[in-house]
TrEMBL record, chains A, B:
SUPFAM superfamilies with a match to the protein in the record: Alkaline phosphatase-like
Protein name (Swiss-Prot/TrEMBL): Phosphonoacetate hydrolase
Parts of the chain that traverse the membrane: none
Organism (species): Pseudorhodoferax soli
Keywords: Hydrolase
PANTHER family reported for this sequence: BIS(5'-ADENOSYL)-TRIPHOSPHATASE, ECTONUCLEOTIDE PYROPHOSPHATASE/PHOSPHODIESTERASE
Single Gene Ontology MF annotation: phosphonoacetate hydrolase activity
Record carries keyword Hydrolase: yes
Amino acid sequence: MTATPTFIEANGRRYARPQQPVVVVCVDGCEPDYITQAIQAGVAPYMARMLEHGSSLIGDCVVPSFTNPNNVSIVTGVPPSVHGICGNYFYDVEADREVMMNDPAYLRAPTLLAAFGDAGASVAAITAKDKLRTLLGHQLRGVCFSAEKADKATAAECGIDKVLELVGRPVPSVYSADLSEFVFAAGVRLLQARRPDLMYLSTTDYVQHKCAPGTPEANAFYAMMDGYLSELDAQGAVIGLTADHGMSPKTDAAGRPRVVYLQEALDARLGATAARVILPITDPYVVHHGALGSFATVYARNAVERAQAREALLALPGIEAVLTRDEAAQRFELAADRIGDLVVVSDHLTVLGTSAARHDLSGLTVPLRSHGGISEQKVPLLFNRPLHGVDPARRLRNFDVFDLALNHASAPTGS
Amino acid sequence: MTATPTFIEANGRRYARPQQPVVVVCVDGCEPDYITQAIQAGVAPYMARMLEHGSSLIGDCVVPSFTNPNNVSIVTGVPPSVHGICGNYFYDVEADREVMMNDPAYLRAPTLLAAFGDAGASVAAITAKDKLRTLLGHQLRGVCFSAEKADKATAAECGIDKVLELVGRPVPSVYSADLSEFVFAAGVRLLQARRPDLMYLSTTDYVQHKCAPGTPEANAFYAMMDGYLSELDAQGAVIGLTADHGMSPKTDAAGRPRVVYLQEALDARLGATAARVILPITDPYVVHHGALGSFATVYARNAVERAQAREALLALPGIEAVLTRDEAAQRFELAADRIGDLVVVSDHLTVLGTSAARHDLSGLTVPLRSHGGISEQKVPLLFNRPLHGVDPARRLRNFDVFDLALNHASAPTGS
């Protein structure tokens, strides 16, 4: 008889096989102050208790501080230089076309979820939006479905069907707080029904794009979350919570978006079509942010124009950094062939666009809040258990959350 | 008969003599989102109107983003490299002692307020805390008093007496929102009673250190401000509003302060007392921030230890930049002889301390919010008039607020 191995490996990292269910939650756009303010307002009593008895740390997410690169980093345990997903969207130079990067064909590393499934652990991943499902569920033996298309989940494709019946809720609107609530509700029900060894819950930042920390709507969202986290805890789960990225207001005091249109600036300097600006925030769901984030990449035709573009970009207001491909690949651990010749990061109140005509801001019914830059890199790393054996000098990343929950969280009391 | 000159000069800048009262307001710690959220919550109807018909810009404050360097920059129109005030507190190497920098003896440039007074304009400056009064009122022929010591104002020292009678309010507590309200109330009464040509109102950030933008307490403060601004506007004043610095949460998600104790780290590396850490945020009013900000300077004994200190500092978590004296003096336009051998800036969630034992955090009854770093450099520049003739490529500073209000604000309708 072969003993079950104690550790499961993925991408060069070893994870302890869980003795009780481990639930990792990625709260999209969770600037740490959302939690601080919700606790402060008294609407998150579970999180207050959880952080008193568990652990509260701050980690760095991946820059660009966007959803896809970070969710993929979290489920692979490695940065984009290894897994290849550097944005939601990129310019495929060989094919000469701009493409969404949510096809697993672009994935260069297996997920740890798949490794756990292959090792016989029972695994489930639930995402808010369907765009992430195919990446997170790549080659996963287990359950993987999205709230957005919960009614379409089949046993063949998602490892589960009749999700609406299980959760007892209708399919939520893709632009709503309900979409995230469905993820939590499904997680709680699935834990009751199947008790998976490892579960990953990933929400959407619809609320965070609209509401500042401590405002009534934000507090209501975190109060909702607090209730479900409490239910997961009550079922004995080890909970690790992090975020894909933070969130900042991207407006002046009057609430008007502060946008620097890079393609316009480069066209004026280099002539039309000399440089190509790519906004890796771009995805099919742009209503709440107008495809405006704080990170862009620029493709130039040659070294001379690249230098001219860099100079022109550095002279623009609201720009925090302009890096060459190699500088950006090294500093942010990105795949050099998946970014442009230049990487542009704007400051905490500024977003980057291409040309005014290419951004539909009509959906911005409240002052724009967004992300993508270095200013949204700090994210919470929270656990409902004390951690042990973590080097205090270690630079923690959001993609260490599985390592911390599986390898460093204390055994629950009484186990 | 000599014609009154149209312009008044100060520190190499020319300001148009005002045709109607000009009121410049410095809202201490006014991260732009405070105003955005107050407007959004519907509690600042005047500011909503003001920004619809006037101007809303974002400017850079001086780093260190502290009160004294920025208030002095605003009233001199020049950076600390010219006026010499680089912090609230500094280490006088020659005298070998650490001193408060609120003595006008440290001021290397006259204020534009004094220049206006000398040119026969009627000028008034009202500050919340008395610590600023002697700097702002240096050699000023005009009115200058603090809310904190409003009852002590004498005609001989402050150009005014019976302030409590004028304002109709008691002396407020130094740790209160009332202290700032007193400044606004006094400004409104003074404008009615004496109609000064130029007025400077400078508040305190007691509320901003405690409350996040959009929370009920913050909104109440901005609603209060909104009412007084509306009264100033109704009296025909041109209003320019800016901030000395922004404000960020300096905690983890649980609301615990994220402090890096630099003296402890340097003592461990270099031996005790080899390096001296100075926190220029230090002032006599530390209850609400525990003398914890995001900017520090370090004095080393020699070049070898300076290099060792720099290396040790760069390895610490939460550090955004470590600059040499010359790099910092150039980048932040500081007086090189008023800063240490190294300048340390921490990130938007982190503050810098000396040693744990030297900081009293018992006054932090709510999660710490503070400033001092690059992350608090963006401040509002708001006007109740459209601006004309401002180069869109110009890097705006908070200390351009008098230039913008006096030289670029449109004449009021009907004048």
